[in-house]
Design brief:
Chains A, B, C, D, E, F: It is found in: Peroxisome. Six copies of one chain form a homohexamer. The first copy, chain A, is an alpha/beta fold and 279 residues long. The first copy, chain A, folds into two domains: 218 residues, 2-enoyl-CoA Hydratase, Chain A, domain 1, CATH 3.90.226.10; 47 residues, Lyase 2-enoyl-coa Hydratase, Chain  A, domain 2 (Orthogonal Bundle). At the A-C interface, helix 3, helix 5 and helix 6 of A face strand 7, helix 8, helix 9, helix 10 and helix 11 of C.
Chain lengths: 279, 279, 279, 279, 279, 279
């Protein structure tokens, strides 16, 4: 089934049952992104979202040097940020707006994926590395990860999601402003302390192993329960408590009508591992 | 006055002036909840809310083994989660929805209580332990507390408030997804680090003593000031800053018209403890 | 140009290029605030917002004893909180409401300043110290800072912004309720742990030096990129992700049409420091 | 079953199958409300909400003189609005706040009733008549109805829901401000034109007959479809389109799993009236 | 260029300069929708959105008998609403949810189209006719249009947008509940009175002619001004005034940098028709 | 006291007790606005808001030819819309944004005025006429009023409030899009039908007389009740019902503590006109 996920700049493999591994694969350019790549990210995660054989996903970058160095600035300066196109300021603005909205939508498709996604940030993790991993559910990193909200260093405000999602992801708004305004590089210890990542491992291979272990653990649970937990958390994130509770009530009104509850309860009593139907 | 709070599965006592102690009292079942208990929780906190002799509340579980193990699964499988009732999927869904909404409302009555509530999570604190304590104002725990967002282990998404309130309570959304999707047990050190609890004590008796001390300290302040602080924080939680400020302005327009301000200021200058009228 | 910023209770200086230093200057009263001072704060930050020679701001208190002890209670009890004025409860309430709204607006002008503002909290930092610094972008402190959400100790709920902004600034709501309900004094270690400040330095002079260094670093970036980062973070704070992304898209549609992007990219490649036009 | 609905100031009858008729019954006082009456309203609509024999409700006032003249001012001036109780302004304010919130909640229970409620406004319909009928789903009136947002005439802003619900109910905000600020009496023609009512009949008996006909028509539809339509409209009212659509999707994911859809489709093809199971 | 818009169930033509005409083309089935058709609607409007030769769009149904009779119930009962697929209630619910979300997204693509869309509702306009036309900008109808929020008649709550968008489109919430709960058929006079349509014409050909005239008028304006007006109205619809104004400010900060403003002003003074560059 | 309101382009008079009349006074230019005028509008309404001698306000344009023709395009093309200023697109955008935000704020000061404001739209009422009158509480017009959302005709989207406030003011979103996208001129009959105005009079002098009569009626009510009604309606406008009710509860908790309630009730019983203290 891996053949269904055939993209030039991505490797999609299935290292353990129910778990997909998406690897950004442009290591010679530090996994920097050009346009085709975010279109591919969207296509891959849309497919994983409904793939009955997938219950959890991990996301990494190929090679040892970078998760991703972010936007491929060279490619961008010939495209999105070039002087070509309309000279009228408003028309140019509309072209840019279309482009940014499309780019944002592609990255948001990671968030919309029904299955939990674990990002493993290793080595250079600049700019888009944050935009993307903040659209994932869980973030892990390694001892040598170098994080940076790099965008101000190329003269712009981060526009693919970091400025909307980072302040919700961590509990230190002074720190958010500090790193977003200064573009300074910070490491995993700091990322862990502020809550950007929830686990740090000594190197990439250990982090991948632990990520897969966590993905497998999640994949061993009822896919109905996992789906509901992800979707309700995402829905409730920027709603009031009252709205979140109402959504939860109707969600579970639908989703409690499953054999999984009985199977999960029974196997809990019997201390054995339950088997759940595909989603 | 303790006789006013007479419930089979709860002890309500008044260990120090102005402070109520609500104890979940079903220790032989690890303080697991059946339906009558959440109805009682609602009744108790509605009464405490308006009780002029109460200015702060602590919430604990009876015995050493558990704050609460969560929903009494055995009782639930004969009730809410049983196969009885309508067979039509939609009618069954509506029955479930009514049930969940009522259950949520009961727990929200803790949040609506005008007086601050301090939860002391000790030993087993699974599932509903989080739903309930997240509706409290302050969370303390002990060295041996075992926390778990347990619901995915019984095949469902947590639906009594955890998925709405937990992400606002702590500053590490990656960690929230991690524990909510994996149902893994975690301890007080981790809970403290992410901000789920704001204090950890060596055992239950020390935690209760410290909880009572904090409750007493709060109870020594102007009840008008304490009420306003709780209510404005709750109102502002999921509003914009602009809306929060406007609500605050009219709140204090009403609540500054009190003798308490003068008494508090004067006793501050005179370095003595003020006495405030009942609320 | 410092002469443009001539106020009795504030010193405004320009210690390094592009950076303004606003100092609360009433050290003999622990920098406590009376009405003229919050009107001045508003005037100063409105001017800094559009001053082309300013790209970042630091805010401190004069002297070693206090950033600010908060509201000048003596002045307030002769004014806002006095018994003079209307005796009709509703008319008194309306007078208070007008007063609170005006006071809030003045402090919010710090938040609205287009340039990043770094608060350096040192020594006594009570009440208004929090309201003000929470309207700043970045908070630093010193080993001896004494913080307190002091308002309940004078019989009222904090009404100039703390109760709206503090819960968003840090990732520990249990702690927020703890300090806001108890008015207890806490130190920098605790402030750092919960995320209220993002850096602690050994004393005021080191903190000011580090604050200036950070301000200079930010001031060395494209002013367009810095402006956008601050404004989008502020706008997105209490909007949904979807709304934040849409706002970001149109913002950058306008703001990518700048020479700064090219200059920043080029100087990045050439490893030299770019120069940007004034804002 | 009417005996289950035995209240001094309300008649609850079941004039046609599936339809309840709630009549405010204090005609000698123009159906003016005192406290017990809004507590009763709450109790009645909570019960109707879950009563399997009820699928639609109409609400009227007894007698020919009034739907209701609003709050019983005499009763109120001895209670809520009296000088008794605390003299401290803040404590008095808190007592009033508790009272208003409880009163609002009782009226909101009409809105929360799972079954559609049709208000038939006839003759004098002042103050609370609007608060109540705006919590209903459909409003009808008669040629002689006299409407007034009467509250400013007794020195206060309407506080039981009119100021929140009226602007959403009609499409003429200039008119809303006009009638709410002037307290002027207006008639059914005007109410129809601005959309406050959706039908006007020549007198009370015709209006009741038409109201019952409409209630019967609604009661003849699938109760699952009717419930969903009411609940989704209420939920979506003050949410964004995006949020409303997401809620709708999960609602119907649960509620399409019903025999009613098949029965309704089939009877549609066969041009016969379907029979649906109770809710 | 019409060849770019080649779909079995839709005719896309360009009757006048800058104006596209989208015609639902399944007249033998009263233009009822099956799945391929909403996928096509999405594809068509996504393309129109960026087509530089299009500045306004009209939407009609082929033939004289119907704009659309709504969902093709026969097709649906073999698909979405069939008994096939998973028997587990939760898995069935998730399948339905995916389906509904995808269907909603397709219809929302009309709303997202950058160019104004005018729906011309004629003859039978049931169910989906409302979902679709409510995602358009302007609604016109004919003397013989038969409208119905038909969904309750097939046992379900309308789930493709009507219940979210209709209450915002018209100013008579009592009427919205009336028609949505009763599924009764209503005509153009009523639709005009409540504001569902803003123009009624004697028959389809006149309505199409008038729709084209209006589309041409809009197409004669600056495409930048038209785009901004549509997008700001849509964005502001369910935001606060404050948020709407901020979005508007940055929008126009980008979009005032256009030659169109000068051209429009000048041609206004010179009483001649301006020519604007393509978007 | 009229001398306090001395502005070159505005006449402020006090034609009847408690009522102010603000007249835009640049009739030779059809009352078109240049920058100083919106700054003055802000200053005037801020002062009226707190002026104890004012309880209601009417707003008109001097002369018979126009309420206002909108922005003075000639002045604007030499200022805001000129080619002077920065050539860098982003810096130009920021200048425009500052300008628009300041302009919006000035007009919003009409909305923030504590006293109800009645706009009387007569003759030419283009562009800014709508922005301004939509920030008023009540809109009246005359038989000859010519309305137009004129902005698209000068190549831009309306940015001073119309696109945010108009859709909330009227109940016909199709019509809103129609007039906003086409810039067509419409008259009072249409304005009345859609709810943009709530009264139409035969000419300006009659409209002013009726406006004054309505202002006087409102001014005869308790100023506390009037203030509360305006402020709660404005606050609730874009909040949820739940939030609006909570705000209302604390508002009235403060504002019921007034002599006005007793005076209003008593004079109601005694059928005499009450006298209320100044606000």
């Amino acid at each position: 089934m891996a053949t269904d996920y055939n993209y030039e700049f991505f490797n999609v493999t299935f290292p353990v049952e129910w778990v997909a591994h998406v690897e950004i694969n442009r290591p010679e350019k530090l996994n920097a992104f050009k346009e085709v790549m975010w279109l591919n990210i969207s296509a891959i995660f849309k497919r994983l979202s409904h793939d009955p054989n997938v219950r959890a996903v991990i996301l990494t970058g190929a090679g040892d040097r970078a998760f991703t160095a972010g936007l491929d600035v060279q490619a961008a300066s010939g495209g999105l940020l070039s002087d070509s196109g309309p000279t009228d300021g408003a028309r140019k603005a509309n072209g840019l707006r279309r482009h940014i909205l499309e780019f944002q939508d592609c990255i948001t498709d990671i968030e919309k994926c029904e299955k939990p996604v674990i990002a493993i940030l290793h080595s250079i993790s600049f700019g888009l590395a944050l935009d993307m991993s903040l659209a994932c559910d869980i973030r892990l990193s390694t001892a040598n990860t170098q994080f940076s909200v790099k965008e101000v260093d190329i003269g712009l405000a981060a526009d693919i999601g970091t400025l909307s999602r980072l302040p919700r992801a961590v509990g230190n708004q002074s720190w958010v402003k500090d790193v977003a305004l200064s573009a300074r590089i910070f490491g995993s210890e700091e990322a862990l302390r502020v809550g950007l990542v929830s686990g740090v491992y000594k190197d990439k291979s250990e982090a991948v192993a632990e990520g897969l272990k966590l993905a497998s653990l999640i994949a061993s649970k009822s896919p109905i329960a996992v789906l509901g937990t992800k979707e309700i958390l995402n829905y409730s994130r920027d709603k009031s408590i009252v709205d979140g509770l109402q959504y939860t009530a109707i969600w579970n009104a639908a989703m409690l009508q499953t054999q999984d509850v009985k199977d999960a309860m029974l196997s809990g009593l019997q201390k054995r591992k339950p088997t759940f139907a595909k989603l």
